[in-house]
Amino acid sequence: MHRFAKPSVFLKFTAPILPWLSVLTAILIAAGLYFSLIGSPVDYQQGHTVRIMYIHVPAAWMGLFCYVGMAICGAMSLIWKHPLADICARATAPVGATFTALCLITGSLWGEPMWGTWWVWDARLTSMLILLFLYLGYMALVNAFDDPERGSKAGSALALVGAVNVPIVKFSVDWWNTLHQPASIVRMDGPAVDPSMQLPLALMILGFTCYYFVLLILRVRLELNERRIRALHLSGMFDETATPAAAKDKAYEAGHNAEAKQ
Amino acid sequence: MSLSRAKIRKRQRMYVIGAILLAVGGAAALMLTAFEDSVVFFFSPTEIAEKSPIDPDQRLRIGGLVVEGSVAKQDDGQTIAFAVTDMAETVPVSYRGILPDLFREGQGVVAEGHMSSEGTFIASEVLAKHDENYMPPEVAESLKKSGYWEEIEAKNAEQMRN
């Protein structure tokens, strides 16, 4: 596994995957949207409002999925000091935070017509809000230090400690009574969602997951390239004032080649 | 087999992280167990019966299924009376205000308010709590015809109890 932790290997492996994954994401989300908005029945109680579920549940899944990924990357960066693990964790945080916020917002919009309230402080809603704060705290913490390594150490520690919240979010509806209904999909007796509604849900969950990986690959590539540019800057290659014209030409050559090699 | 110093250090870091996670998880579990009464969103009629008599000044939430046929408008035309049950105990509720759309007989509700000294729950807010089942109307119809509906309702009542 450590073999794959090298940035150059990452760039080589993800380059051919990225276009296919992007197309797959587009197809999954397009089909998912069709089935969630048009090709699925209304709920016997909620009517069309049930369609919020097809955004809300995948967003909640992604919020937890990204957090687990971020915590694992944080652990790998703490234990093995893989720079790539740290970059992955940093790249995941804003994506996970956005999905978590999306989950909270759609949940609120769903709760008003169905429950009769935008927000209550029950265990599920509160733990999900804490998840959002953990993401925001992580993002603030990793950028709070001048030395990026200290920032990622502190951030990884926060991400790992916060991972305790993940099972609390998932099982809050079983451990305590909440206004939020119990799990509908991942539960002992099999899904409590009618098969006709499972299809759009599955498509959206898969689509959101693929979308995350597309974003992750793009963000990690961006960060690796930025680091490369920074390294070139530090080596004085782009330094126009300090170097004579001949060195500048050489610098251009080196930078140009690095770009072409990709 | 002797491990290199770097490997030993990595292994140590792994153990330390594992130990910290266990400690934090344990602390969280203890805290959440200790504060269980504040973490739960509502009490079931059974818990209300166990706790009674409840101080009329104490605000709390009660949750359960609305008893079939119990919803009635009072003479003043504004107060609504109904009963909430978990199939073991039943508590009468009186509420003055607008009910949510999903408020139906046989469905879950959570009411916030206080117990009067006569044993009626005076609600200031009523929220609908729906179950985890999602289905098209036709499926609901056929479930009602085939008799599976009672099973679902009994399960909902059981969830309210724990």
The CATH architecture name of the largest domain in chain B reads Beta Barrel
CATH architectural label of chain A: Up-down Bundle
Structural class of chain A: mainly alpha
* Radius of gyration of chain A using CA atoms only: 22 Å
Instruction: Please give the share of residues in helix of chain B.
Output: 25-40%
Overall mean pLDDT of chain B: 85
Secondary-structure element order of chain B, N to C: HHHEEEEEEHH
- CATH-defined topology of chain A: Four Helix Bundle (Hemerythrin (Met), subunit A)
In CATH, what is the class of the largest domain in chain B? Mainly Beta
- Please identify which CATH superfamily of the largest domain in chain B we are dealing with: Nucleic acid-binding proteins
Beta-strand content of chain B: 15-25%
Distance between the termini of chain B: 54 Å
| Structural class label of chain B | alpha+beta
- Runs of chain B with pLDDT <50, length 5+? none
Q: Report how far the terminal alpha carbons of chain A are from each other.
A: 23 Å
Task: Considering the chains and any ligands shown, give keywords for the structure.
heterodimer, A: 262 residues, mainly alpha, Four Helix Bundle (Hemerythrin (Met), subunit A), 8 helices, 74% helix, disordered C terminus, B: 162 residues, alpha+beta, OB fold (Dihydrolipoamide Acetyltransferase, E2P), 5-stranded mixed beta barrel
Q: In a few lines, what is going on in this structure?
A:
The complex is a heterodimer of chains A (262) and B (162). Chain A is an all-alpha fold.
Write the layout of secondary structure elements.
The complex is a heterodimer of chains A (262) and B (162).
Chain A: H1 7-37, H2 53-79, H3 83-114, H4 123-142, H5 148-162, H6 165-175, H7 195-234, H8 245-261
Helix pairs in contact in A: 1-7, 2-3, 2-5, 2-7, 3-4, 3-7, 4-5, 4-6
Chain B: H1 5-34, H2 36-39, H3 45-51, E1 60-66, E2 72-73, E3 79-85, E4 90-96, E5 108-115, E6 121-129, H4 137-146, H5 149-161
Parallel strand pairs in B: 4-6
Antiparallel strand pairs in B: 1-3, 1-5, 2-3, 3-4, 5-6
